[in-house]
């Protein structure tokens, strides 16, 4: 191929995808088909070149496929180590996340969401009281007596909590009765911290009754597919408190179809840690995303099914935060309406039975369910 041909092809690729072609480092990445690849400029990726030449002029569907291979590093492309394909073993129709830009209920999700505090950038597992104001605890009545927090979720607006479907499938021995928001250290109310020359406290926690539970209708308790659900609370949450704020969701085109590669993501919760028992204090950890292919192999001897509609993280790469609370969030920082915000990309679905098992935690992937979320919330 001549230098001129390469140059023209590169311009063609840039034109149809909207990407600038720049020199970059070569980090490893995961392709949409769950294979391995390397983030490099498109003009250096022979499978991409072959795909464009083979399919020119490119249809809109083929342009969408090319965009799906975009890396989050230096506007490069995830060049596959093998053939250029997009199918998933459990997504044969190459289904992409839905476009909800013009959904009738899109305005029910606040644009002011996912605030970031300066304390968020401190290294370590400990968190400060205003760092994660979207965190929610799900409270259950036990069979014999008393109550217990058994799952978590996130505030997505004044009326709704996002969580896992399996947290909503209760029984006579375990009944979901209420949700707590604005919590940081359980059994301490209000939560206070010492700052520079002063002491500051959060507002008291808000315990609200459950008005409605909405598990995904296609949730499968055996394979754990479609493990996502919503809770509508009985009365309006007070989101004017600094300790209770909604998290952002991937509603825009720029936030959908993200190629996570081996990206580091953040998880938060009060769940089981390497120390064993639940933590009374909200903790955080940064873990690396694991490819769908590798994750699927890890769980192949179980009934669980791993598809493109899930994200796997931690475990295999030696994370000491091997289990998060069910229903809790997997997040990344990204631009949301031109502001740097925290975006929830995953909901904790399932993970290893014991921390000694080097299994990643599996999260339900949000961008594939944004249409379902919007279909099921109301003013």
Automatic annotation (TrEMBL):
<dbReference type="InterPro" id="IPR043504">
    <property type="entry name" value="Peptidase_S1_PA_chymotrypsin"/>
</dbReference>
<dbReference type="GO" id="GO:0005576">
    <property type="term" value="C:extracellular region"/>
</dbReference>
<dbReference type="InterPro" id="IPR009003">
    <property type="entry name" value="Peptidase_S1_PA"/>
</dbReference>
<comment type="similarity">
    <text>Belongs to the peptidase S1 family. CLIP subfamily.</text>
</comment>
<keyword id="KW-0378">Hydrolase</keyword>
<keyword id="KW-1015">Disulfide bond</keyword>
<feature type="domain" description="Peptidase S1">
    <location>
        <begin position="122"/>
        <end position="378"/>
    </location>
</feature>
<feature type="domain" description="Clip">
    <location>
        <begin position="28"/>
        <end position="79"/>
    </location>
</feature>
<dbReference type="InterPro" id="IPR001314">
    <property type="entry name" value="Peptidase_S1A"/>
</dbReference>
<keyword id="KW-0964">Secreted</keyword>
<dbReference type="InterPro" id="IPR022700">
    <property type="entry name" value="CLIP"/>
</dbReference>
<dbReference type="InterPro" id="IPR018114">
    <property type="entry name" value="TRYPSIN_HIS"/>
</dbReference>
<keyword id="KW-0732">Signal</keyword>
<dbReference type="InterPro" id="IPR038565">
    <property type="entry name" value="CLIP_sf"/>
</dbReference>
<keyword id="KW-0325">Glycoprotein</keyword>
<dbReference type="GO" id="GO:0006508">
    <property type="term" value="P:proteolysis"/>
</dbReference>
<dbReference type="Pfam" id="PF12032">
    <property type="entry name" value="CLIP"/>
</dbReference>
<dbReference type="InterPro" id="IPR001254">
    <property type="entry name" value="Trypsin_dom"/>
</dbReference>
<keyword id="KW-0645">Protease</keyword>
<protein>
    <recommendedName>
        <fullName>CLIP domain-containing serine protease</fullName>
        <ecNumber>3.4.21.-</ecNumber>
    </recommendedName>
</protein>
<dbReference type="InterPro" id="IPR051333">
    <property type="entry name" value="CLIP_Serine_Protease"/>
</dbReference>
<keyword id="KW-0720">Serine protease</keyword>
<dbReference type="Pfam" id="PF00089">
    <property type="entry name" value="Trypsin"/>
</dbReference>
<dbReference type="GO" id="GO:0004252">
    <property type="term" value="F:serine-type endopeptidase activity"/>
</dbReference>
């Amino acid at each position: 191929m001549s230098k001129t041909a390469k140059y023209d092809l590169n311009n063609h690729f840039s034109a149809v995808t909207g990407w600038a072609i720049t020199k970059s480092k070569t980090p490893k990445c995961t392709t949409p088909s769950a294979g391995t690849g390397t983030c490099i400029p498109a003009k250096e990726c022979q499978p991409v070149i072959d795909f464009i030449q083979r399919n020119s002029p490119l249809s809109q569907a083929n342009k969408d496929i090319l965009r799906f291979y975009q890396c989050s590093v230096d506007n490069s492309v995830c060049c596959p180590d093998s053939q250029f394909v997009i199918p998933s073993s459990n997504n044969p129709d190459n289904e992409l996340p839905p476009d909800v830009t013009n959904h009738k209920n899109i305005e029910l999700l606040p644009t002011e969401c996912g605030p970031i505090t300066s304390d968020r950038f401190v290294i370590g597992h400990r968190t400060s009281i205003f760092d994660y104001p979207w965190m929610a605890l799900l409270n259950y009545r036990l069979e014999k007596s008393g109550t217990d927090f058994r799952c978590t979720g996130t505030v997505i607006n004044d009326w709704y909590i996002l969580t896992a479907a399996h947290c909503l499938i209760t029984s006579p021995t375990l009944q979901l009765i209420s949700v707590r928001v604005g919590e940081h250290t359980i059994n301490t109310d209000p939560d206070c911290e010492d700052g520079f020359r002063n002491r500051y406290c959060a507002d008291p926690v808000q315990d609200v009754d459950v008005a409605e539970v909405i598990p995904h209708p296609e949730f499968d308790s055996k394979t754990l597919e479609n493990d996502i659900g919503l809770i509508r609370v009985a009365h309006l949450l007070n989101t004017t408190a600094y300790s209770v704020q909604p998290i952002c969701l991937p509603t825009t085109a720029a936030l959908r179809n993200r190629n996570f590669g081996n990206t580091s993501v953040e998880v938060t919760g009060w769940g089981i840690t390497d120390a064993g028992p639940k933590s009374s204090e909200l903790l955080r950890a940064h873990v690396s995303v694991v490819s769908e292919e590798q994750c699927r192999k890890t769980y192949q001897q179980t009934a669980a099914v791993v598809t493109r509609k899930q994200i796997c993280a931690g475990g295999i790469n030696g994370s000491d935060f091997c289990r998060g609370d069910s229903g809790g969030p997997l997040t990344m920082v990204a631009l949301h309406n031109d502001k740097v915000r925290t975006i929830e990309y995953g909901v904790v679905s399932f993970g290893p039975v014991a921390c000694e098992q080097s299994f990643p935690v599996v999260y339900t992937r949000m961008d594939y369910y944004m249409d379902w979320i919007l279909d099921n919330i109301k003013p």
